Amino acid sequence: MADLTESGSPVQVQLFRWAGSWGPFKVKIPCGECSLTLDVIHDTFANELSGIPVSLDVRDWLTEWWRPLPRGGWHAPIVLVEGRLVSQGHALNRGVLTEAIIDAHARRSEVRGNHVFGKATCPHCVRAKSYLESSGIDYEYHDVVASPRSLYEMLARVKPIVGHKTPITVPQIWIDDAYVGGADRLAEIVERSVEPNPERGRCSMSPGR
User: Fold this and answer.
1) pLDDT in the model for residue 60
2) What percent of the residues of the chain are helix, what percent strand, and what percent coil, each to the nearest 5?
């Protein structure tokens, strides 16, 4: 998926691996899960996070064991994203890393262009795309089911707008760099009438219930 934002400053990632020395103590046996975690980080940077600026700092835990302690990190391999602990004590889950980095990147960058976040089985997503196509508006479509990055990107950007307790549905739409919302709001923008749909459920946490 192409990056939908301007680059911005790199997201800072730190890995504290089982290595180094402290006084008379020295790590003599390398940590297999630390090595695996480093491989996962590099591969995730190249794939799921391609296009997002990141900076990786690898440190020896035994030599600097006190540095991650204030963040709750004490068991290598320890992974911090922007100083926040995301994993320790086992091989890194790439989904956890992807979500943490996208969340950090979303806080320092703005959406550029026209975008629709949706899923194949959503009729309102199909409707939104048809509005844009019939109006001659180019857009980029992001499938939040097929692409974890698209899902994390959508959540990271929509939650601060609508509130963290509000359930997020699809589609979620941006037009000309600005957040629009769903298909009904898009219909207003492209001047189309929308028939009320009594089958659309309302969550118990939705406004107005």
Assistant:
1) 98
2) 30, 20, 45
